[in-house]
Amino acid sequence: MRHLKLICLIGDPVEHSISPVIHNEVFKKLGLNYVYLAFRVISNELEHAVRGLKALGAVGFNVTLPHKVAIIKYLDELSTEARSVGSVNTVVNSDGRLVGYNTDVVGVTNTFKSLGVSLHGTSVVVLGAGGASRAVLHTLASNDSSRIYVINRTLEKAVELANEFSSKFPHTEFKPMSLTLSNLKNALEESQILINTTSVGMYPKVNESLIPPELLRNDLIVFDIVYNPVETKLLRDAKSVGAKTIDGVNMLVHQAAASFRLWTGVEPPLNFMFDVAYSSLR
User: Fold this and answer.
1) Which residues fall within 8 angstroms of residue 271, CB to CB, at 6 or more apart?
2) Tens digit of pLDDT per residue, the chain (282 long)?
3) Which residues are the active-site residues?
4) Which of 21, 25, 184, 267 has its CA 20 to 30 A from that of 164?
């Protein structure tokens, strides 16, 4: 029997993740001798988990909340993009050296590109200031968004993130704000796109949203990176007023495809991955 190669997901929580289903179905379809497993890893065990995966000879792993930034100090090397973004969601074991990548950027970029949405000159409201928001901010600024409102419950984190990205992308205006009704109202009135990068609305708390429905309008594009459920309360509310909505499966599959390429060197069947993802969430 050929040696079975291990790839996994680490985070907390991971029970909601459909990444194992997607990757394992693709491995089976392509006849690749890999297995993808999900492991819940709490924050104070992260270093031990990384060392363990390295010792086991894992081919690589995905990193999800809340470890996308914390993981960096346990890696041997970062890709140029991961270094710029300041967060990692994909790790490749390259002959015993753990190299961090950020395929979330590819996920966000390809999501907008595949749907024909241009980011050039746009004003965008981004909810959240964690690891996922970093990839979103990097993508928006790299594609010439003119103004980005970074709105977070903790203002200090939003300010820190806005200052960091302002120095990297001086042509884009970053405006940090605390999460208040008046700030949301003012920012949304000036914006064409709203992106939720927080876990609010994720299963099992499916009836939660950070945005009061009355602030949404039909000319907004509303993108929620949460994919379980596919249609979050935010997206339901947005759809009800006629706004264009983008679900989190888009980003999930596009970033998964990019990670798959890094681990295997094989081009994955993208449409098949979308079919598996949506089927597993029905």
Assistant:
1) none
2) 478 999 999 999 999 899 999 999 999 999 999 999 999 999 999 999 999 999 999 999 999 999 999 999 999 999 999 999 999 999 999 999 999 999 999 999 999 999 999 999 999 999 999 999 999 999 999 999 999 999 999 999 999 999 999 999 999 999 999 999 999 999 999 999 999 999 999 999 999 999 999 999 999 999 999 999 999 999 999 999 999 999 999 999 999 999 999 999 999 999 999 999 999 998
3) 68
4) 184
Cβ atoms of 124 and 192 closer than 8 Å: yes
Which homologous superfamily is 105-246 in? NAD(P)-binding Rossmann-like Domain (3.40.50.720)
Tokens representing 7 are 């790839």
Q: For the chain, give every domain's residue range.
A: 5-102+250-280, 105-246
- Which residues on adjacent β-strands are paired with residue 34? 5
